[in-house]
């Protein structure tokens, strides 16, 4: 009996350690308290490419773009380093020459100062392309760290991204028929992956299918067992499909300036910084579903006037959120792209007993913001108690197919990708 208890404790601790060691996919972190408005996007010569998670294909002349502000007026010389990650996004100790090209540390371009703003800041950018040094070479998951030059341990920004070598074509199908109930609060995401390169599929080489919803990092799904497999096709269907809480259409506000028409803003209060009080939002958990062409959590920084440069002439506001709702047993948080890089405590709303509402205040750069209110269900956000969850909700899904390779080192290469956005269909 004692041996059985000891074995159980060892197995439990092993499981717990592995669970804790797994990293967040496509992590976004503003580690330095001065950092704000972090954005990671993908582009080419035609402009920005619509990707809900930052993965790019250098072989298709794509690049990765990173931008952020530091809220002070002093320019800093910043550098960056690249770390290769495994399929669980854990950084690996591998020789840089095997996975990347160029120097061990790169240099960010000089920052730009803010202009005509109450809040003083410096705007920083970085583009990873064919001319960058260092630049990633091996397909798969990567972690970018930005820090003062020569001080890689003093991290300001962390951003996960993936390098794509496209060999497989993916298609996705969304269904309200799920193992958790049909036509209820969930959606099932099925995938068919096909290739004409039959040599790429070997019986002893596993695949992983990553499925993400609305660029969220908290509820991603990793599928390891397809429902069907042949030399040229993989299927993840039925019980092998990914299942997500459907949620509800996102709320939004647009904040430009006192001279402009601001959507969803109740009023502006003069100050330093200026305060933007949003129109109070009400709990929707018992409301019927209403369709709306929303932005599924995206945010865009916008200048007060079109002729201005949004990166340096857009001011910061103290945005005050009010969510009218009975008090719930679990905390309520802001959910959306603009809040992914924030520490969890900054996304938390606090209950005002007198006002019977939840409140929060955040310093945000003016622009368009799409968001939801959600409870924290053991590390995964849920809208069932705040916004409701409806199978009809139009969500954007990203599907990424990884294949295990052994050359030049054992790794999972990203070999296929597809973006599913119902509003574009």
Number of strands: 35
Give the helix proportion (percent range).
under 10%
- Report the major sheet: 11 strands, mixed
Quaternary assembly: single chain
- The Rg value, from CA coordinates, equals 23 Å
Structural class, from helix and strand content?
mainly beta
Query: Could you give the distance between the termini?
Result: 60 Å
Overall morphology:
globular
Mean pLDDT across every amino acid position: 91
* Residues in β-strands, percent: 35-45%
**Count of discrete alpha- or pi-helical segments spanning 4 or more residues:** 3
Low-confidence stretches: 1-21
Q: TL;DR of this structure?
A:
By secondary structure, the chain is mainly β.
Topology:
Elements: H1 2-21, E1 28-30, E2 35-44, E3 47-49, E4 55-56, E5 63-70, E6 78-85, H2 96-99, E7 100-101, E8 106-107, E9 112-113, E10 122-128, E11 135-136, E12 140-148, E13 157-163, E14 169-175, E15 177-178, E16 181-182, E17 186-194, E18 207-213, E19 221-223, E20 228-230, E21 233-236, E22 242-245, E23 251-255, E24 265-269, E25 274-278, E26 281-282, E27 299-301, H3 310-313, E28 316-324, E29 332-335, E30 348-352, E31 357-365, E32 367-377, E33 380-382, E34 397-405, E35 411-420
Parallel strand pairs: 4-13, 25-28, 26-28
Antiparallel strand pairs: 1-13, 2-3, 2-5, 5-10, 6-8, 6-12, 7-11, 9-10, 12-13, 14-17, 15-16, 17-21, 17-22, 18-19, 18-34, 20-21, 23-32, 24-25, 27-32, 28-31, 29-30, 29-32, 30-31, 32-33, 34-35
């Amino acid at each position: 009996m004692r041996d059985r208890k000891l074995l159980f404790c060892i197995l439990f601790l092993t499981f717990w350690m592995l669970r804790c060691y797994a990293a967040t996919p496509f992590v976004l972190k503003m580690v330095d308290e001065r950092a704000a408005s972090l954005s990671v996007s993908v582009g080419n010569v035609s402009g920005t490419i619509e990707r809900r998670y930052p993965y790019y294909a250098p072989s298709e002349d794509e690049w990765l773009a990173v931008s952020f502000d530091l809220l002070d007026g002093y320019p800093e010389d910043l550098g960056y380093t690249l770390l290769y990650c495994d399929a669980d996004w854990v950084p690996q100790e591998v020789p840089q020459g095997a996975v990347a090209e160029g120097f061990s540390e790169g240099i960010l371009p000089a920052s730009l100062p803010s202009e005509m703003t109450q809040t003083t800041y410096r705007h920083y950018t970085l583009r990873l392309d064919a001319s960058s040094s260092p630049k990633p070479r091996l397909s798969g998951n990567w972690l970018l760290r930005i820090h003062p030059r020569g001080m890689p341990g003093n991290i300001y920004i962390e951003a996960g991204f993936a390098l794509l070598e496209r060999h497989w074509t993916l298609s996705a199908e969304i269904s309200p028929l799920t193992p958790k109930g049909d036509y209820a609060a969930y959606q099932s995401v099925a995938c068919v992956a096909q290739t004409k390169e039959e040599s790429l599929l070997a019986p002893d080489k596993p695949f992983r299918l990553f499925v993400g919803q609305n660029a969220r990092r908290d509820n991603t799904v990793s599928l390891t067992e397809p429902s069907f497999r042949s030399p040229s096709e993989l299927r993840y269907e039925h019980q092998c499909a990914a299942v997500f809480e459907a949620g509800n259409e996102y709320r939004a506000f647009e904040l430009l300036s006192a001279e402009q028409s601001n959507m969803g803003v109740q009023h502006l209060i003069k100050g330093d910084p200026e305060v933007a009080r949003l129109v109070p939002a009400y709990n929707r958990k018992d409301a019927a579903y209403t369709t709306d062409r929303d932005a599924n959590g995206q945010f865009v920084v916008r200048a007060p006037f079109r002729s201005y440069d949004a990166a340096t002439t857009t001011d910061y506001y103290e945005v005050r959120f009010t969510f009218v709702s009975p008090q719930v047993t679990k905390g309520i948080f802001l959910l959306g792209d603009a809040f992914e890089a924030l520490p969890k405590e900054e996304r938390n709303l606090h209950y005002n007993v007198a006002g019977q509402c939840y409140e929060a205040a955040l310093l945000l750069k003016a622009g368009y913001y799409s968001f939801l209110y959600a409870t924290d269900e053991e590390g995964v956000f849920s809208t069932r108690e705040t916004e409701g969850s409806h199978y009809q909700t139009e969500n954007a899904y990203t599907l990424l197919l990884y294949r295990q390779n052994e050359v030049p080192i054992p790794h999972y290469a990203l070999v296929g990708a597809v973006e599913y956005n119902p509003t574009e269909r």
